[in-house]
Write a structure and sequence with these properties.
Layout lengths: L2 E5 L4 E4 L1 E4 L10 E4 L2 E5 L6 E5 L9 E4 L4 E5 L3 H11 L12
Antiparallel strand pairs: 1-2, 1-8, 2-5, 3-4, 4-7, 5-6
């Protein structure tokens, strides 16, 4: 599922996979974020731009953060999800709950 992440710094990301991990030490990051893209609202037009996190600095696709730095998670609008899928090539998997 593609989710949005709002950081305490004000940055807003989209990610195809957000996973809680067990750090070696409590000071280390405990959240792994796959293919994070930064969401930016263009002031004059109100349109939304998305681009890879740290674009131009690294080709890395998995980043570690601390959950203490996250303000909230959210479900993005469908048009933003479609743009993310187009740029990343991510295909969402349907989650089925099958009880026996």
């Amino acid at each position: 599922m593609i989710q949005g992440i709002v950081m305490k710094t004000g940055e807003v990301f989209l990610s195809s996979n957000i996973e809680k991990i067990v750090p070696e030490d409590y000071n280390n990051p405990d959240l792994e974020v796959t293919q994070p893209y930064v969401l930016e609202k263009i002031p004059l037009t109100g349109s939304i731009n998305i681009k890879p996190y740290l674009e131009g600095f690294t080709s890395q696709t998995v980043f570690s953060f601390r959950t203490d730095d996250v303000l909230t998670l959210f479900s993005p609008e469908e048009n933003i999800i479609e743009e993310y899928k187009k740029q990343t090539g991510v295909v969402e998997q349907l989650e089925l709950n099958v009880e026996e």
